[in-house]
Amino acid sequence: MTERNLLLLPGDGIGPEAMAEVRKIIAYMNAEKAAGFVIEEGLVGGSAYDAHGAAISEEDMAKALAADAVLFGAVGGPKWDDVPYEVRPEAGLLRLRKDLELFANLRPAICYPALANASSLKPELVEGLDILIVRELTGGVYFGEPKTITDLGNGQKRAIDTQVYDTYEIERISAVAFELARTRGNRVCSMEKRNVMKSGVLWNQVVTATHKEKFADVKLEHMLADAGGMQLVRAPKQFDVIVTDNLFGDMLSDVAAMLTGSLGMLPSASLGAPDAKTGKRKALYEPVHGSAPDIAGQGIANPIAMIASFAMCLRYSFNMVTEADTLEKAIANVLDKGIRTGDIMAEGATKVGTVEMGDAILAEFQALSA
Ligand code: NAD
């Protein structure tokens, strides 16, 4: 039987509560579908600091490097506000991203029909929305040097950030976008600012060349990133896969997120380069939301973002496409039945807690998989 090695890092706050609901789905898949998941567990964030004095221990980092995929909950909380900067909870996540070399961040924006009314846009603009934003995660202006604030000595200061991209960085992120487009609507829209930025000119050239060389079957379109932002709120359903740099991706993916309703609904994936021997990519899957200290421990957190992150893991790390589709369908059906956690509650719906939402999704998943 195929062994599928998963490392679970539940983290802090609502992380462990949401992860518990994924654990139930894994247990069912192992028991009834012989899925062969081998689970390791570890600590990250504040919980790791309390146990080891670091945001992630070396032992857990080794487990992450050895795993086929990492499922991450959330980190942080007021308890750790005053810990030294190098060991703050977020340092655990940054270390994982860096050491696993996760350069591609995937943020789907899916609007479940039952939640179309929760969007800030008109329901007909977002109902059935299914787009994927592929953001470059390890380069660009957040990391480029020099990055300084200099005192000019005349009462003025000068701040410098450097936007820098090499050909290989653009090639590998666009390859990820084209490959993913082939598994969806087969369309990629690349966004940059070639009209005012040299990095935009190179971005455009490299995406175009990569497309021509290896992915000519995929439909490619280019858009200036500011126009892209406008189109995202004007007619979001025109897009399939959007590929863009670190800075524009940060903003555009948050814009896309708000098209879909609540933070408790949004999954994400971060992928690395394929291993030269096995072809497998290092990968980390996590909800977009944080540790929500204001509701932690109350049993009311929405576990859907965490469960949908596991669905992405099934799809992208284990090529279990049918199972991923079924799990996503189970989430949609449960929402259709009017079952809601507090953050997505609507008039006439049935309000449930974290465990009940997890149970309802598992029951639906079982029924659909039977
Ligand atoms: P947050 O995402 O934790 O919460 C924002 C708001 O959304 C809160 O009112 C919260 O109750 C609500 N919310 C979030 N997820 C929810 C869910 N699944 N179900 C229901 N409601 C949900 O963001 P924040 O309050 O800015 O940050 C809280 C802590 O989380 C901070 O320590 C922050 O540094 C950390 N954080 C961690 C990550 C991460 O682990 N990747 C991401 C963002 C924030």
What does this structure look like?
This protein has 370 residues and is α/β, with parallel strands linked by helices. The protein has 2 domains: 1-106 and 263-370, Isopropylmalate Dehydrogenase (3-Layer(aba) Sandwich); 130-258, 3-Layer(aba) Sandwich (Isopropylmalate Dehydrogenase). Helices cover 41% and strands 22% of the residues. It has helices at 15-33, 46-52, 58-66, 89-99, 123-126, 167-182, 198-214, 225-234, 246-258, 304-316, 321-336, 354-369; strands at residues 4-11, 37-41, 69-74, 104-110, 130-136, 144-151, 157-162, 187-192, 219-224, 241-244, 267-274, 281-287, 339-340, 350-351. Helix 1 packs across helix 10 (304-316), helix 6 (167-182) packs across helix 7 (198-214) and helix 10 runs antiparallel to helix 11 (321-336). The mean pLDDT is 95. The structure holds nicotinamide-adenine-dinucleotide.
Give a summary of the structure in a few sentences:
With 370 residues, the protein is an alpha/beta fold.
CATH architecture of the largest domain: 3-Layer(aba) Sandwich
Shape: globular
In DSSP terms, counting alpha (H) and pi (I) runs of 4 or more, how many helices? Answer: 12
Low-confidence stretches: none
Q: Which compounds are bound in this model?
A: nicotinamide-adenine-dinucleotide
Count of β-strands: 14
CATH class group of the largest domain: Alpha Beta
Helix content: 40-55%
Write down the overall mean pLDDT. Answer: 95
Corresponding CATH superfamily of the largest domain: Isopropylmalate Dehydrogenase
Order of helices and strands: EHEHHEHEHEEEHEHEHEHEEHHEEH
Biggest sheet statistics: 10 strands, mixed
**Alpha carbon gap, first and last residue:** 21 Å
Q: Rg from C-alpha positions?
A: 21 Å
